[in-house]
Specification:
The complex is a heterodimer of chains A (about 290) and B (about 325). With about 290 residues, chain A is mostly helical. Chain A has eleven helices and two strands, in the order H-H-H-H-E-E-H-H-H-H-H-H-H. The longest helix of chain B has 27 residues. Chain B has one domain: Orthogonal Bundle (ABC transporter involved in vitamin B12 uptake, BtuC), CATH 1.10.3470. Chain B is globular and about 55 Å long. In chain B, about 75% of the residues lie in helices and about 0% in strands. Chain B is mainly α and about 325 residues long. Chain B has a two-stranded antiparallel sheet with strand order 1-2. Chain B is built from 15 helices and two strands. At the A-B interface, helix 4, helix 9 and helix 11 of A face helix 5, helix 10, helix 12 and helix 14 of B.
């Protein structure tokens, strides 16, 4: 039994990271109908900038804050320079633009920083905590708490605040939102800033456990994308559940079947879910307008 | 007499392939040329899927992997001649595309993207994990095709790079000819109709699911043959051929040059294949430049390079 619990705990930790990336996907998708394949690069930037700011002598919390703000700025720049000029382009073009952005950010990072792997100290030490025969790192608790906190904040933001409702209105129908006086450009900027900040936060939380380097973003983006699709694109609840589900599934596959095929399990399940429910677990059914 | 666009395209393609070697200062250029043709073939298949039918796939490298590993494995385990191994790979790819295609193609847009991506990743994972069969991430050797020896026997003596330049160029022209014929066939018209609007196509009696599947299977065969050619000319293959980045490269080449036009997509393949060779001088900046090119072309030339440029030239002429 402790074995199962151990796999579950490590699965939830990894799943919380996927959930954070998936939440980032969800926000941008809601505001602009774009799946941002550069989402993983935000996670990478969060970790890398924190490391280098910390190495330059800044205290860790300040370094993390700087990383999150800088990454949010890069998110806004991505929207202004690459996504807005391409409004209305077909899905294939948008996919290539955001993948191009992700390659660009990776190239820039390796120039500005370096190609090494880095880590900074965990927030509350590296002493594992014992739970019913299984162990969990304190940093894992930080990651899980981070994912839950972000989810709750987003939920409050979208349901309880005026600007949050404006984002939802824009997602629903851009022109109608403009007609009732919503500044949709501002909504887009805000969405990219939030999404990038959440990605950077994930990077800050996870780097003490998994290390960071200029090329860690792509794998995270693919998993986060898969998690978001599993839950149903555009639904924050779906992103959270999809992320956690994916993480647990991977951990179980690695533990009981084959660690080589842990990534395969995720994609097999996604294919199965999409075949049975083409809109994902929580997605709404869509109809074509002719 | 005015030549049809099909004949013009084929003539341009054949002429460029035949004349370019005159300007080649070294055998290295033959090598780059044959790589362009191999990529061009895969991209021509994607023109059918993306350009004609308007569907997307982020997993076509999976089929290239199947074609490549068929050439590596079938001669050793089944005793097949490499040429028949390539055919077996193409048949296998077609079969798998047929089975996977029907459920996958019910999905649209990003859902289709993630499903095809998942398929491609599964193939590359099997190739790198079944090490006792495929040599794992280290790759494995591929036997000689043997056609060059046969040509030598009848008096045509080509160096290795020259032979592969000519042979993959020939296969590319053949592939382009088939794709262009398809464009003007009833199938091609059905594909373009469902690209415009699936609902409208269905109401005029187009079996949408069937024609999407046809496009998917055809493009899978193109990708598979391209993978086989790559394996045979390199005489060595690694699971990277089936990797996600290769899928992305294929789609980018197609869309960069112009997904709606065979010649444009091949131009895209030529640019993206030569770009890294040119950029080795600026190795540090390679990724930066590649990302920048991808973004700029997609933002400022949405239809891709060739259609945008020809439109601009025509616009000026009138």
């Amino acid at each position: 039994m402790p074995e199962l619990l151990q796999f579950l705990l490590s699965g939830i930790t990894v799943g919380a990271v996927y959930a954070l990336v998936a939440l980032g996907f969800t926000i941008i998708y809601n505001a602009s109908d774009v799946v941002n394949f550069a989402q993983g690069e935000f996670v990478m930037l969060g970790g890398m900038i924190t490391f280098f700011a910390h190495a330059a002598g800044l205290p860790l919390p300040l370094a993390a804050l700087i990383a999150i703000i800088v990454t949010a700025g890069i998110g806004v720049a991505l929207n202004k320079l690459a996504i807005e000029p391409a409004r209305g382009a077909p899905v294939v073009s948008l996919i290539i633009i955001t993948i191009g952005a992700s390659i660009f950010i990776r190239g820039a990072t390796q120039l500005v920083f370096d190609k090494q792997l880095h880590r900074f100290p965990a927030f509350s030490g590296d002493q594992p905590i014992l739970i019913g025969g299984a162990t969990i790192l304190p940093q894992s608790l930080w990651v899980i708490a981070g994912a839950l906190a972000v989810f709750v904040c987003l939920w409050l933001f979208f349901t309880r605040t005026l600007i949050g409702r404006a984002v939802l209105a824009t997602a629903n129908n851009r022109i109608a939102a403009q007609l009732v006086g919503i500044n949709t450009n501002y909504v887009m900027t805000l969405s990219f800033a939030m999404s990038a900040a959440i990605g950077a936060l994930a990077g800050v939380l996870v780097t003490p456990m998994t290390l960071t380097g200029y090329d860690v973003g792509l794998a995270l983006a693919l998993k986060g994308f898969a998690a978001a699709m599993l839950g149903g694109m555009g639904n924050p609840k779906g992103a959270l559940v999809g992320g956690l589900l994916l993480g647990v599934l991977e951990a179980m596959t690695a533990g009981y079947i084959s660690s080589q095929y842990k990534d395969a399990a995720a994609f097999v399940v996604i294919l199965a879910v999409l075949f049975a429910m083409p809109q994902g677990l929580f997605g709404r059914k869509s109809t074509d307008r002719v | 007499m005015r030549l049809s666009s099909k004949v013009t395209t084929l003539l341009i393609l054949a002429a460029v392939i035949a004349i370019a070697p005159v300007f080649f200062p070294s055998s290295y250029y033959f090598r780059v040329g044959s790589l362009i043709f191999v990529n061009g073939l895969a991209v021509t298949g994607l023109v059918i899927l993306i350009g004609y039918a308007g569907q997307i796939s982020l997993g076509h490298a999976g089929f290239a992997g199947i074609g490549a590993y068929a050439c590596a494995l079938a001669p050793v385990h089944l005793g097949l001649h490499p040429a028949f191994a390539a055919l077996l790979g193409a048949a296998l790819s077609a079969g798998i595309a047929f089975l996977v295609g029907r459920p996958i193609l019910r999905l649209k847009g990003y859902y289709l993207a993630v499903a095809s991506l998942g398929f491609g990743i599964l193939v590359s994972m099997v190739l790198s994990n079944e090490a006792q069969l495929t040599g794992g991430p280290d790759g494995m050797a591929v036997p000689e095709l043997g056609l060059r020896g046969a040509l030598k026997a009848i008096g045509i003596d080509l160096s290795n790079t020259e032979f592969w330049y000519a042979f993959s160029g020939f296969v590319l022209v053949l592939g382009a000819w088939l794709a262009l014929n398809l464009h003007h066939s009833p199938t091609g018209r059905a594909l373009r109709a469902l690209h415009g609007s699936e609902v409208a196509a269905r109401t005029v009696g187009v079996d949408v699911a069937h024609y999407k599947l046809v496009a998917f299977v055809l493009s899978a065969v193109y990708a598979s043959v391209s993978g086989s050619l790559l394996a045979l000319q390199n005489k060595f293959i690694t699971p990277d051929v089936a990797g996600f980045m290769h899928s992305i490269e294929m789609v980018t080449m197609t869309v960069l040059g112009g997904a709606g036009s065979v010649l444009g997509a091949i131009l895209g393949a030529a640019i993206l294949t030569t770009l890294p060779q040119v950029l080795t001088i600026f190795q540090e900046y390679e990724q930066l430049m590649l990302g920048l090119v991808m973004m700029l072309v997609m933002i400022f030339m949405r239809e891709g390079l060739l259609p945008s440029i020809t439109r601009r030239i025509r616009g000026r002429g009138e």
